[in-house]
Amino acid sequence: MPRLLHAFQMSVSSFTDIISNLKPDLLIYDAFQPWAAKIASSMKIPAIHFATTGAAAYSFFYHRFTVKDSAFPYPTLYLKDYDRKALQASISKLEKDENDKDSLFGYFDLSYGIVLMKTCRGIEGKYVDYLSVMCKKKVVPVGPLVSQSYDGENDSEIVDWLSKKPQFSTVFISFGSENYLSKDQMQEIAKGLELCNVNFIWVVRSPVGERIDINEVMPKGFLDRAKERGIIVKGWAPQAKILAHKSVGAFVSHCGMSSTIESFYFGVPVVAVPLKLDQPLNARLLVEAGVGIEVARDEDGIFRRDEFADAIKKVMVEPSGEKLRLRAMESSEKMKNEEEEDMNGAAEQILQVFMKYKQQT
């Protein structure tokens, strides 16, 4: 992420030239390029912010930094002690540095008229409304924006393997593209999978520049014992295709916003293991919606094999799983039914903003 941000910052001069030549009627920018709005404004081009973090997390943090003398009005969203510890360095810096605080929410202020957000009113409606009040701009959901178009080289192998498994019998485990578990936590997952004895697809990633030897990080003999029940994918897996498959019954996730939306969209209950940033709040959003449960952890945020296995069983084996699955399917249907309406509504809002800007200039 730091490299990406640095690359964006280095592109300011080129971006200015591009905008000057193209002269677009309107610009849409995200949190990685807040400077884009200032450049557009200097050229009398309206700019609208597109937020990819969800309304629940945004409203929680917006409240945290702007309304310090009152509690967040939705108590089902909260941070546990170990979440706070993970965030403390960033929070302390933001509280001390006004410039950083501006950079956190400044792109809301720079957005002309509205803020677009990758979410759906059906799952975050009250948070969309609360955030609109706080940022004094209408927050407009654009829908889930879920894509299944990318085909990877191992897609067919994974899908073929899944197709041989019974309905709802398989757990998909993935912690996103920028989260890496310690060897100890990976071993706890492996041992937890043996305790609950379910089929699984487990995506294992390593930091850029590092190689991970699966045989070294897994418990001795695990790969042989589990070879009939599971597969381990190194690097990348077709997440949307996997979640859409009828054999998948649970999604063990870090609860990044894209993964959270995909779990809702495909109707797959979530076993939440949030790690940082907005992920704990997304996890509690899933629990609040009745489509997820969170793995129990100790005061340092460490989970053990027993707690991990218990969470899997609650979704995959015990009667509670049927209730979670039914609620997940209902949420999926609702999101898909509203998808076109959200997108059309966003397009109409963008057009209105553009027309208003033209009338004023």
TrEMBL record:
One of its GO terms (molecular function) is UDP-glycosyltransferase activity. One of its GO terms (biological process) is carbohydrate derivative biosynthetic process. It holds the Pfam family UDPGT. Residues 321-349 form a coiled coil. Keywords: Coiled coil, Glycosyltransferase, Transferase. The keyword Nucleotidyltransferase does not apply. The keyword Transferase applies. Belongs to the UDP-glycosyltransferase family. This is Cyanidin-3-O-glucoside 2-O-glucuronosyltransferase-like. It comes from Dorcoceras hygrometricum.
